[in-house]
């Protein structure tokens, strides 16, 4: 299922952002901004956008720099930017929010992020959370400690030896290859994404998915993990901002849900007063693309949370 439409948004960062959009099918109650994961693109979220549109949300999802159909002089495929990539990714998110608010000025805004998109969304909310009505962070690992710091050191060495614009073989082995090894038996190297073979095959067959990010891009992602998941970063969130966390116990990316639970505890320790934690037993990484037995409880949890943070509106409240 596809989005209703797409357009190009020229961001101040210099990127021409591909933005997908779907309009609310009933009385609009909020804008939902969707951030996709690493080595994929926003176009894969059309079915989710359609469901949210039926629930009364205007949905916007853009291809991050180095992904999908977004283009920028300093951001070829698989790279955020030559310099300040993490800052430019967050600036692009702001440009999309500003455009969504221009089109729908009287509606609250909720941000949803999956995997890398969840990391981006959390960092974004730390900067702009006072204007948001909710933040959903799904299927990611924002724990600090030795692993991301070791990754940062290994990437620095890889950059010195090979340069910044080549595929990071170190991170490929530490991420995609390591996650694939945790699924047995498996048909492909991407069975960790979903129990649905059609979803996995579509991902494998999509030329915009499954690529090995550059050293530069992975340095930016690791930096976002370390900043976003730090005590200092988490304390920057507005204390009353509602946060929805979700992970699957069959997902190696989130350490089978352990990283999701750790993030919930860290958020509360950092001062967040409204944290909802949902773990879906057995679900793999792409919960939105899972088989019904895993996808349905995840969506029910999200919808219940959305009903609280962005309640349905009566016809009399409809935006002009």
Strand content: 15-25%
Number of helices: 10
The low-confidence runs, each spanning 5 or more residues with pLDDT under 50, are none
Q: CATH homologous superfamily - what is it?
A: Alpha/Beta hydrolase fold, catalytic domain
Q: Mean of the pLDDT scores?
A: 96
CATH class: Alpha Beta
Question: Based on CA inertia axes, which overall geometry fits?
Answer: globular
Tell me the CATH architecture. Answer: 3-Layer(aba) Sandwich
* Strands, count: 8
CATH topology: Rossmann fold
The main β sheet shows up as: 8 strands, mixed
Biggest sheet, strands in spatial order? 1-2-4-3-5-6-7-8
How many angstroms separate the termini? 28 Å
Instruction: Give the helices and strands as they follow along the chain.
Output: EEEHEHEHEHHHHHEHEH
Number of domains: 1
Structural class: alpha/beta
Helical fraction equals 40-55%
Your description of this structure?
With 320 residues, the chain is α/β, with parallel strands linked by helices. It has helices spanning 46-54, 85-103, 116-128, 146-162, 169-181, 197-205, 215-228, 231-234, 258-269, 292-309, and strands at 5-10, 16-22, 30-35, 57-62, 109-114, 134-138, 243-248, 275-280. It has a single domain (5-317), classed as Alpha/Beta hydrolase fold, catalytic domain (Rossmann fold, 3-Layer(aba) Sandwich), CATH 3.40.50.1820. It has ten helices and eight strands. The chain has an eight-stranded mixed β-sheet with strand order 1-2-4-3-5-6-7-8, with helices on both faces. A hairpin with a 5-residue loop joins strand 1 (5-10) and strand 2. The longest helix is centred in the N-terminal third of the chain and has 19 residues, at 85-103. It is globular and about 60 Å long. 50% of the residues are buried.
């Amino acid at each position: 299922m596809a989005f209703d439409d797409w357009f190009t948004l020229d961001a101040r960062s210099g990127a021409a952002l591909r933005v997908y959009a779907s309009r609310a099918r009933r009385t609009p109650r909020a804008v939902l901004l969707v951030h996709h994961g690493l080595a994929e693109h926003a176009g894969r979220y059309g079915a989710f956008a359609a469901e949210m549109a039926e629930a009364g949300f205007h949905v916007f999802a853009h291809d991050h720099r180095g992904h999908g159909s977004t283009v920028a002089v300093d951001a070829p495929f698989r790279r955020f930017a030559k310099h300040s990539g993490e800052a430019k990714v967050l600036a692009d998110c702001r440009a999309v929010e500003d455009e969504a608010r221009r089109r729908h000025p009287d509606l609250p805004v909720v941000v949803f992020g999956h995997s890398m998109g969840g990391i981006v969304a959390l960092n974004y909310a730390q900067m702009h959370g006072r204007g948001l009505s909710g933040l959903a962070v799904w299927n990611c690992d924002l724990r600090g400690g030795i692993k991301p710091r070791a990754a940062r050191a290994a990437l620095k060495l890889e950059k010195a030896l090979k340069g910044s614009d080549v595929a990071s073989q170190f991170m490929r082995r530490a991420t995609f290859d390591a996650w694939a090894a945790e699924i047995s038996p498996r048909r492909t190297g991407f069975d960790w994404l979903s129990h649905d073979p059609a979803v996995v095959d579509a991902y494998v067959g999509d030329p915009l998915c499954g690529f090995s990010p550059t050293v530069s891009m992975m340095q930016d992602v690791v930096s976002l993990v370390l900043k976003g998941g730090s005590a200092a970063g988490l304390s920057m969130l507005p204390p009353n901002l509602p946060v929805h966390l979700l992970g699957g116990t069959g997902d190696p990316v989130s350490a089978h849900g352990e990283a999701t639970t750790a993030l919930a505890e860290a958020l509360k320790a950092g001062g967040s007063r409204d944290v909802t934690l949902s773990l879906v037993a057995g679900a793999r990484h792409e919960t939105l693309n899972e088989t019904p037995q895993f996808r349905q409880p995840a969506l029910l949890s999200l919808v219940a949370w959305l009903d609280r943070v962005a309640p349905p509106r009566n016809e009399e409240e409809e935006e002009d």
